[in-house]
Amino acid sequence: MSSYPSTSTPRVTPTSFLGRMPERDRGRLLALGCTASGVVGTVLLRQGERPAQLAVLLTATAEASYVSPDGHLVRLSSYGAGDVVGLPEACTGRRALSTVRVASAGQVLDLSPSVLRSLIVTMPSVTEAVVRSLATRVHEVENQWVDTAVTDTRTLLCRWILRFADATGVPSPRGSVVTIRCSQSELASWAGLSRETVVKHLHVLRAEGLVMTGRMHLTVPDVERLRAEADGAR
Prior knowledge:
Blueprint: E1 2-3, H1 23-30, E2 34-38, E3 43-45, E4 54-57, E5 61-67, E6 73-79, E7 84-85, H2 87-92, E8 99-104, E9 106-111, H3 113-122, H4 124-150, H5 153-168, E10 169-172, E11 175-178, H6 184-191, H7 195-207, E12 212-214, E13 217-220, H8 223-230
Antiparallel strand pairs: 1-2, 2-9, 3-8, 4-7, 4-9, 5-6, 5-8, 10-11, 11-13, 12-13
Helix pairs in contact: 3-4, 5-6, 5-8, 6-7
């Protein structure tokens, strides 16, 4: 591990935890942590434990999953560059409800929860970033509940693909490639649908030019067109 260079700042989305801070304040926060290389599958947060460190994703992405007592795996959420893993636990002192693993390799910054709590008191931009990040997560969870309760399965699948494209999509000549692991079975798990339902809808979405599928990834040729499709039932 090493300290993050104060002269170097990662590229993050404006709506992420790091992206909400002015560059100067972001640099101060990064200088207080240590970087490590996160390989695919690295556990950043473990279900049932209180985290000793927060994980700030610099260039890596991650996904959270919950394992029920009977062994059923449920995928809960994804994290992109600039997001922080373990924020609710650091603020409340409670045990983690899910396990978060690195989904695509990259740099991760380890940050002490006590350091973050100190910054919350002394740096208004950090306070705002924490509040907005937590509020965004709450809204996402509520939105998922609403989608699952009242949305048809095709629209629900489109909205999940769009979430991945917005959160972790990497621009390419062919569109926005979802860079987290995304097989058809895993997409079904995320959306809470059967694999057969996902396969059926993907077949139609491919025919309509809304998505292209490849090994362990999806490509969205026209994000705004998919967004219009996902918003159709709102």
